[in-house]
Amino acid sequence: MPPPTPRAAPKPWPLKWVAAVIVVSVALYTFLTLQFRKPGPAYRPYQDAQDRATTARLLAGGWSRLPADVSRPADPAKPAATSAAIRRESPGLGAELEAAFAEKPPLLASVGGVVAPAEVARGEDYRAYFKGTLADQGTQLAEVAAYRRGNTVVLIPTIERLPDAALLSRWAEAPYQVRIPTQALPPGRYEVRLAAQRAGAAWSFSVR
Known about the structure:
Layout: H1 15-36, H2 45-60, E1 64-66, E2 69-71, E3 87-89, H3 95-100, E4 110-115, E5 119-120, E6 125-133, E7 139-149, E8 152-161, E9 173-181, E10 188-194, E11 200-207
Parallel strand pairs: 5-11, 8-10
Antiparallel strand pairs: 1-7, 2-9, 3-11, 4-6, 6-9, 7-8, 10-11
């Protein structure tokens, strides 16, 4: 019997076909990732653990978060018919909130020029105006978080780094408006603290 004829070795793919397969595979992976990945920021194990610890401590201490948003008004506020009396407050969050935060939030350097009404009808938005000062113009105001326990409301303006290290905030001091819906506030009198690194501000208002 004659020996079997050896098979010829398969010809290697041309490099252009290899490159084409790689390009198609990368494009398909990118498409599937964009279509099916979960929305929102990437998972941050350390930060997420810190946030969970803070939330648990706040809830255990009787604090709840109120909805609030902040904006940059074009002009300072006009005084309300009855304006709240504003007083200076000690720096920081206060001893109880300081202990609740696993990681201290970055605050504005200082706040001042507060204009706030002394009363509001329940269901209306409570609007307070203030001037905030940045310690570093490479940052900007990110949000004002509002926490309530009983008849105490604490407003915490936090800052964030600008997305580009070369960018600077135009002004170190700027006016802001914080708006708080009052649907979740029963009628009564409330004590407000506006926190900052240095002396903050405090005042009272009534929900009628």
